[in-house]
């Protein structure tokens, strides 16, 4: 049985005049201990997916359809009281900005101890001991002293390490990390990602990594979902997607990486922008930006098909693959 099984998940937002679809019928599985990447530009639906999986959507957002099976339990329609036994305990989430996650008026120790005592029958002394162990696991120096400090007294990298320690406090089976290094300096980002990978591997914790950075995904994950306008448009083993992308959008994301451009040359970019939720095209949502577009792309939504070791939602994948093969052989 999968650790997590998402089936036909649809998330909508109730607007003043109509309802818009933020996630459109997405499905995927996550095995125990597996690391999955979810990538795409801003507005693709990545973070909404994470919030939906944690059942943290607030009005006007709501789950309109589908199932989220966590170890066989459908958590999509659970009450807040039911979710308290799962959220933080068996599933944890790391958010983009640690200063938003941490309470500025409570010490690190107070926040960690309260979390432990809310879910476990522990004394304060026992909870503090566990907190120190977790801080030591994320390589925080002098962890006993950190318990008495407030978030503003720590550096950005230190705060993010504490967030990771808090996510691991209750030994969850799944961590959802939403752009966990966005607020950090570039020099610290690699250290944090390496730490997160090490902890997930050593504790056999499942990981869903939400990011716009395919370079990070290639180093961190085993499988990848590429999202566009609320749809999964390519899915498969990360190595297959990075080395041989099938969807034009995925190809565009990879071509836009700095290492794909020669020094001194302009970075490549995908023309146009992600469509807004109120103006998603009728056919393939990527059709206005796609150089391979045909008339039927503008009118008919492509369904995912198995192609070259991945699932891809593209009408022109056969022609695209043939054209690329001819270019390489020329």
UniProtKB/TrEMBL annotation:
<keyword id="KW-1003">Cell membrane</keyword>
<dbReference type="InterPro" id="IPR027417">
    <property type="entry name" value="P-loop_NTPase"/>
</dbReference>
<dbReference type="GO" id="GO:0015833">
    <property type="term" value="P:peptide transport"/>
</dbReference>
<dbReference type="Pfam" id="PF00005">
    <property type="entry name" value="ABC_tran"/>
</dbReference>
<feature type="domain" description="ABC transporter">
    <location>
        <begin position="6"/>
        <end position="254"/>
    </location>
</feature>
<dbReference type="InterPro" id="IPR003439">
    <property type="entry name" value="ABC_transporter-like_ATP-bd"/>
</dbReference>
<dbReference type="GO" id="GO:0055085">
    <property type="term" value="P:transmembrane transport"/>
</dbReference>
<keyword id="KW-0813">Transport</keyword>
<dbReference type="GO" id="GO:0005886">
    <property type="term" value="C:plasma membrane"/>
</dbReference>
<dbReference type="InterPro" id="IPR013563">
    <property type="entry name" value="Oligopep_ABC_C"/>
</dbReference>
<keyword id="KW-0472">Membrane</keyword>
<dbReference type="InterPro" id="IPR003593">
    <property type="entry name" value="AAA+_ATPase"/>
</dbReference>
<keyword id="KW-0067">ATP-binding</keyword>
<dbReference type="InterPro" id="IPR050388">
    <property type="entry name" value="ABC_Ni/Peptide_Import"/>
</dbReference>
<dbReference type="Pfam" id="PF08352">
    <property type="entry name" value="oligo_HPY"/>
</dbReference>
<comment type="similarity">
    <text>Belongs to the ABC transporter superfamily.</text>
</comment>
<protein>
    <submittedName>
        <fullName>Methionine ABC transporter ATP-binding protein</fullName>
    </submittedName>
</protein>
<dbReference type="InterPro" id="IPR017871">
    <property type="entry name" value="ABC_transporter-like_CS"/>
</dbReference>
<dbReference type="GO" id="GO:0016887">
    <property type="term" value="F:ATP hydrolysis activity"/>
</dbReference>
<dbReference type="GO" id="GO:0005524">
    <property type="term" value="F:ATP binding"/>
</dbReference>
<keyword id="KW-0547">Nucleotide-binding</keyword>
